[in-house]
Amino acid sequence: MGRTAKSPRWSIAYKFPAEEVVTTLRSIELNVGRTGVITPTAILDPVRVAGSTVQRATLHNEDLIREKDIKIGDQVVIKKAGDIIPEVVNVLADRRTGEEIDFAMPTECPECNSELVRLEGEVALRCLNPQCPAQIREGLIHFVSRNAMNIDGLGEKVISQLFSEHLIHDVAGLYKVTYEQLIGMERMGEKSATNLLKAIESSKSNSLERLLFGLGIRHVGSKAAKTLAQYFETMDALSQAQLEELTAINEIGEKMASAVVAYFENEEVQLLLSELKKAGVNFSYTGPKLAAFETIDSVFSGKTVVLTGKLHQMGREEAKEKLEALGAKVAGSVSKKTDLLIAGEDAGSKLKKAESLGIDVWDEDRLITELKS
Ligand SMILES: [Zn+2]
């Protein structure tokens, strides 16, 4: 029967339906995340599902608890979604005894007692206190995580302990932790303390994108952090970037650009960054360079160009290569970020769109002339 590019023809994937089980929901715990979002979690009577014992299930937010009419003490159906995080499918309301208790979200942060707010357009409740210990602790856990600074041996437990014993209060504090402090902690042997210090030390030379992601700038995920690091190459350049420079990058939207600008304008952030710099943390991108973008002196450098219609003197692919070699970024579709449209014969909707957006349009002759100059 042979095989296709992906798999042999004689085998097909069969997905088993997720296993569902019934258990009792004992209580609802509230967790404060890194960005202040309050997430309710169901605490269950332990039950085996899909090969493991489950004691917690995510409830996502208050709306979901209302929608599913979940009460404390309810018999609930649990499913492991994608076999990772268990969730409550539904409540068995006919099994109620009348002893079940309605759940109400608190009006105050369970960790710092600040008033919780629901931001416009969001379902989640948030604690907006930047000094909230839960948020700081979660931020530290994020900073050392695998896609961020990737500090081996610094798990949630060690971070929580360092934080609760006031040995660190921000990410810069990690770089001031001493051997004596570590060795004084519970379950911390000489060897783990030494290894941990080594891991912290070596994280200083991480490429910029890891630090950027670790800092937890709003809307900046690990992929966006990489893009920003590649384009700006240093923390200093990025911290001075204007909104327009950021939105000119294809992958960076308005929301993220504003968040980046706001982040670096914050005085506390400036202080934190200078602490990190003093500690010797690398502020530069050390990965492979972005292909000549914005570094070449030509009319095309730094411009986003779109090709459309039929070209006669060269193929589309050849034109693309030439433009890229001159520092242009060649995109597939016309948007507000397009600087220039090259319109060959029979150009259609892209030409119309470019004209309506007031984007420069060149014909093939103009392109050839500029490529030669
Ligand atoms: Zn709080």
Describe how the helices and strands are arranged.
Blueprint: E1 20-32, E2 38-49, E3 52-58, H1 62-67, E4 71-72, E5 75-81, E6 85-91, E7 101-102, E8 116-118, E9 125-127, H2 133-144, H3 156-164, H4 179-183, H5 190-203, H6 208-215, H7 222-232, H8 235-239, H9 243-247, H10 254-265, H11 267-278, E10 304-308, H12 316-325, E11 329-331, E12 340-343, H13 349-356, E13 360-362, H14 364-372
Helix pairs in contact: 2-6, 6-7
Residues 32, 109, 111-112, 114, 127, 129, 132, 134 line the site of zinc ion.
Characterization of the model:
- This protein is an alpha/beta fold and 373 residues long.
- The chain has four domains: 18-126, OB fold (Dihydrolipoamide Acetyltransferase, E2P) (Beta Barrel); 133-203, 5' to 3' exonuclease, C-terminal subdomain (DNA polymerase, domain 1, Orthogonal Bundle), CATH 1.10.150.20; 208-278, 5' to 3' exonuclease, C-terminal subdomain (DNA polymerase, domain 1), CATH 1.10.150; 292-372, Rossmann fold (3-Layer(aba) Sandwich).
- The chain is 34% helix and 19% strand.
- It has 14 helices and 13 strands.
- It has helices spanning 62-67, 133-144, 156-164, 179-183, 190-203, 208-215, 222-232, 235-239, 243-247, 254-265, 267-278, 316-325, 349-356, 364-372; strands spanning 20-32, 38-49, 52-58, 71-72, 75-81, 85-91, 101-102, 116-118, 125-127, 304-308, 329-331, 340-343, 360-362.
- The strands form four sheets. The chain has a five-stranded antiparallel sheet.
- β5 and β6 form a beta hairpin.
- The radius of gyration is 27 Å and the shape is globular.
